[in-house]
Amino acid sequence: MSTTDIQIRDVSMTYTGKNGEPISALQNINLDIREGEFISLLGPSGCGKTTLLRLVADLLQPTTGNISIRGQSPREIRLQQKFGIVFQNPVLYDWRTVRRNICLPMEIMKIPRKERTARINDVLELVGLQNFGYKYPFELSGGMQQRVGIARALALKPEILLMDEPFSALDEFTREKLNEDLLNIWSKNKKTIIFVTHNIAESVFLSDRVVVLSPHPGRLSAIVDIDLPRPRTSELREKPVFYEYVAKIRKCFEGV
Ligand SMILES: Nc1ncnc2c1ncn2[C@@H]1O[C@H](COP(=O)(O)OP(=O)(O)OP(=O)(O)O)[C@@H](O)[C@H]1O
């Protein structure tokens, strides 16, 4: 039985709108995430997925409630640099090569040069870009740029990977390929991953559990265990059991 990694207790988040009006983004979220688990936050636009991810990452503070990560606060975990964060848009510096883009956060963290070089080589291989280290971002496809974003996050050896719709700007083929690649990477180091998506099939394919959020305000409406064998490959997408999970989760949104 694996231990609880992230404990979210009675978390609510209310933003203040332009005219001072309260905007309730999340209400009473309770969730335990296990160490090494791959969990997806799924829901329609505006249901608070990004807000929840940002609360875990200590980029926002909850209005009420508490988040505890391995017995520590999100701030303590952030200050220990245990988070790796991958956004929808990887934001690469055009004037830096792939290698130097991956290197930048490590330079900021003052990781010694030799160690940086070793880590860059490792992560480039992990994401399948070993031959592209000396290219510039404009020479890469969107999928390759997203791989660089993932490599950059992994180079910091995070214990918890937070991914906010990392593949949503990509075409279906590239997204499916990167889904498989991500599972491969995860299977090698089994870090806890929280993955935000509004794509049901993607959440089923990747996750151990799918957390379904309903909007206005965001509430936890279901948690679905995805009891499908691993390793998962693209053939899984053709199987009836896969469609059954997709249908089951789609049902959670009926009437929402
Ligand atoms: N800084 C902010 N100020 C005011 N309201 C905000 C702010 N950020 C988010 N919101 C509101 O909070 C709610 C949840 O937003 P959030 O971005 O977390 O949703 P989401 O599920 O990630 O949406 P999407 O899938 O479109 O990214 C929305 O109603 C949004 O308008």
UniProtKB/TrEMBL annotation:
Q: What SUPFAM superfamilies does the annotation carry?
A: P-loop containing nucleoside triphosphate hydrolases
The UniProt keywords, alphabetically, are:
ATP-binding, Nucleotide-binding, Transport
Establish whether keyword Translocase is in the entry: no
Entry annotated with the keyword Transport: yes
Q: Which domain of life is it from?
A: Bacteria
Q: Which molecular function terms from Gene Ontology are attached? A: ATP binding; ATP hydrolysis activity
Occurrences of domain ABC transporter (ranges) = 6-240
Checking Pfam families in the record gives:
ABC_tran
The cross-references to InterPro entries, in alphabetical order and at most eight, read: AAA+_ATPase, ABC_transporter-like_ATP-bd, ABC_transporter-like_CS, ABC_transporter_ATP-bind, P-loop_NTPase
This chain belongs to the protein called ABC transporter related protein
Q: Which organism is it from?
A: Ethanoligenens harbinense (strain DSM 18485 / JCM 12961 / CGMCC 1.5033 / YUAN-3)
